[in-house]
Amino acid sequence: LGFNPSYIAPSPYIPIIKESLNLKAKDIPRLALEPTANVFMLPNISAFVGADIVAGILAICMWKNEKISLFIDLGTNGEIVLGSKRKMWTCSTAAGPAFEGARISSGI
Known about the structure:
Domain RACo C-terminal: 68-108
Organism: marine sediment metagenome
Domain RACo-like middle region: 1-63
Shape: globular
Transmembrane segments: 40-63
Number of strands: 5
Number of helices: 2
Strand order of the largest sheet: 3-4-5
Protein name: RACo middle region domain-containing protein
Structural class: alpha+beta
């Protein structure tokens, strides 16, 4: 996409893009899709709460639910969202070190 990756390393990490992107496949180099296909990238919530959490919020309809829900994503980073359609809180932490050496081979 032509973004400068040097911004990934310095502290504090500040993402280059936080908003969603809507592109044509033909505008993304080396992407093996039909050139006229739309490619939609979800936005990040913050530097450490990414589009995977946005996808989870959408998948479980948390954004329109009256009841409070909890969504957890564990991977290299652990991200948690607690909330309902009224308000949501998110947090993240490094989770990879918690699983190192645990002999996990097929998920948790």
